[in-house]
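Record 1 of the preview.
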Amino acid sequence: MTTVNFTGSVDRELLKRAKVIAAKADTSINALFNAELRYLVETFEAAEASGNQNFRALLDFSLGRIDDHTTMNALAIDSEEDLFLLMAAAHLPMPRLPEAMTQEMADSLNALAS
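->
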């Protein structure tokens, strides 16, 4: 297997947390990254080869490309709990809202408490 170096960027806090996990697991950030990337690629390819578009819908949701309602319609499910369970089973993180939107929601909730 030939390896190549590449340049990427990652959130500083996420990198700190990954370093802690790597140290606790007695491994490297590189090994963690390779394992996760391999899982993602192999799962995606297997789903695609079988004609199953469910993983693509879950990945698009995880990346914030489609919303929860669109994802649930694509997967023919009707509960957010089922969506959460499928995301966990697919080993994909739930999408995060942009920081500005999160702050706006927090501000709205704080205004209600006043």
